[in-house]
Amino acid sequence: MNLYSKLQQRAAAGRPVRVGLIGAGKFGSMYLAQIPRTPGVHLVGIADLSPDGARTNLARVGWGAERMQAVSLDEALRTGATHVGEDWQALVRHPDIDVVVECTGHPIAAVDHCLEAFAHGKQVVNVTVEADAFCGPLLARRAAEAGVVYSLAFGDQPALICDLVDWARTCGFPVVAAGRGHKWLPHFSASTPETVWGYYGLTPEQARRGGLNPKMFNSFLDGSKPSIESAAVSNATGLGVPSNGLLYPPASVEDIPFVTRPVSEGGVLERKGMVEVISSLEPDGRKIPYDIRMGVWVTVEAETDYIRNCFEEYNAHTDPSGRYFTLYKRWHLIGLEVGVSVASVALRGEPTGVATGWNADVVATAKRDLAVGEILDGEGGYTVWGKLLPAATSVRIGGLPLGLSHDVTLVRPVARGQSLTWDDVAIDTNTRAYKLRRQMEAMFAVPAR
User: Fold this and answer.
1) 360-444: CATH number
2) According to the model, what pLDDT value does residue 212 have?
3) Per-residue pLDDT at 448 exceeds 50
4) When you count CB atoms within 10 A of the terminal residue's CB, does the N or C end of the chain come out lower?
């Protein structure tokens, strides 16, 4: 409740939180737009594969040229300016950087960045949730072993959902379900970068004009990103996941407490205490009024007559039984909110969401019949989409994590709708990401129940 005052104190004392940013794309640019308006924070350096692109984005969000004049990290620290370069290792290894914000969106690279930052005593805010989805529990353990904080990024939906779950449990409410919204119809799982704009309601010309990345947008549309984010929430909160993938029940905001109940009580859940994603479309494609597409929610239960009466007395919208109530945020502001995570890890030593166990996984699943020799193109591409499964199920079938399904070659044919396994592909076993994932499977895996 007092992060802002703590930042003001740091500003007054001349001891700002010193931040290094890796990746200055869209998400990173949104954070950059807020830094000049936030007291007590100094962005010391940016590492990006395209420094010129990073400078262009800095100018786009309103940074003056004088803030980008530093020729080195040391000069940036002396002058209060920001260094822009390609060398991410220099950034994470510099002794005076407090917090590293990993914002590349590249899961294999993100693992390298996080591990190196831990090794040099840096707190880490990981925006690249794709990496967290396939090895977040072990990243969290490695951070704890190094004595630093590893955190999901506030503004992205997983951290916002974790915040709602924490609110509910701190208030004494059992969490029945929690999740996000999404525009979903079942055939979207086969969408490719060529079909994405039609489903979104844009023409290819409009998308090009806006500089929109079809593969990135398609990762949301085809269900990969909702699965990834739901896995991160499950692993951070201990909530369970559906046994065979997300159900995407359609519902307006008012109907969420109706559908996020157990099947035995008229809802869709296999049991209480699960993650789920609410669709903003009816099965016939009609748009649902007052939807939760861009928001997050948590459904809680009143366990006593007194609490149910309180719901009624204060006009809380519940299901017909009066027992289930949903609190929600209808919007999330993505990179504009990352400053909450930076302040929390730096000033409180607390993450805004972090994996506490391995409950969920996202397994690459064929969008079409795939032949031997084909090269998978990962999240949002033409070959696979991400299916949310219990971690025990993924281990039992030897599931190939979606985050490691880019630029790998098929050695066996895979039918449409079938989840891929390690044995289906030839994969580079020398990356730190691969090794960390396999270590996690050995350390955390439990037999399927």
Assistant:
1) 3.90.1210.10
2) 78
3) no
4) N
